[in-house]
Amino acid sequence: MSLSGRVEKGIIDARDEADAFARLRAQQLQPLKLTPYAATKPLAGGAFLSVFRNKPADLEALLTNLSVLLRTGADIRTALGILDDEGKGLKAAAGKILSGSTIEAALTPLFPAGQAHLGALIAAGEARGDLPSGLEAAAKVLAARRLIRQQLIEALSYPAFVFVTAVAALTVILLVVVPAIAPLLDETGQSVPVYFQIIVWMSQALQWGWGYLSIALILLCLGTILAYRYGGLRHIADQWWLDGPMGPIVRGLVYGGFARGLGDTLSGGAAITEAIRLSQRSMGSGIARQRIDGVVQAVRQGRRLSEALRQVPGFPKAILKLCEVGETSGQLGPMLARAGERSEAEALARISKLSKILGPVLILGLGLMIGALMGGVLTALTQIGSVAGA
Fold first, then answer.
1. What pLDDT is recorded for position 135?
2. What is the mean pLDDT of residues 296-316?
3. CATH topology of domain 56-144
């Protein structure tokens, strides 16, 4: 829109939305809406909101771009309108802001489940008059979570590939190789070795019962999902993960994420009890959330945060030490965020080491199993060859 109030349409060459906005403002034009020239077909209704919920990377990009546009001089409603490419659903957020809602409340429906503390970061930035920094802080939290997920996938992909490959090889041996050899051995009239007979029984059981086995696996998966969502399996699984053999690694990730979120929220200016509640909601473990309940109560009663966290079973000592340092130095937020990052990094390093060990162990164990099966098959082939040569 020009200074005279006339609405104009056109095409401008720019690197991104922020660059296009700056170029138009330099020409004394007020952008009302920016649409990529090669834009794809828009999503209907508010479908884009569900896309953000399912894809934190998209929300991360939105928050980053929103912060850039605000720093270039755009107001929040204009920035949302620019990023709302052909009805992506952000107009609803702009409408809430126009009706008097806070920016935090307007953007909260976009946040992934369990990431309520992102709103606190944005609210803190809005309260101190630096909304772009609040948006950037929320984007950094999402980026850190995305990096952790990528590292977990990379660490576990190799063992998973080895396992799937070995299972496929075993299936081929039992369903293809053994059935082709067993009739030939019967035709020789020789007694079938016990070892090979066991392999034949395994092959026949797999051939005859694969349908029932598939149904049983499907029912088992459905039963496990239902028990996890509506039964007590979730509680049992949480207990095992936190206090079982994998406890040191899992606690490093769970409580490290909690400390990081708490530190970021405190650094944003939130009250400590509110910051604890928001960070607690972002924890994926129900038992871990229950263990943090007492922390809020203890802090309300005047106890130091480090003392309250020390009463949480299994809470990492490294985080507690840095928490004490932060309380002493008056830098509790940054120290907790640093402690959380370090705890998560150590847990990921342990997972990486474990995956490097697990891969060769799986190869060795499954190789021995496949070798044993092939040994039985080769024994049968040798016996067939000796009878044919005679």
1. 84
2. 90
3. Receptor-associated Protein (1.20.81)
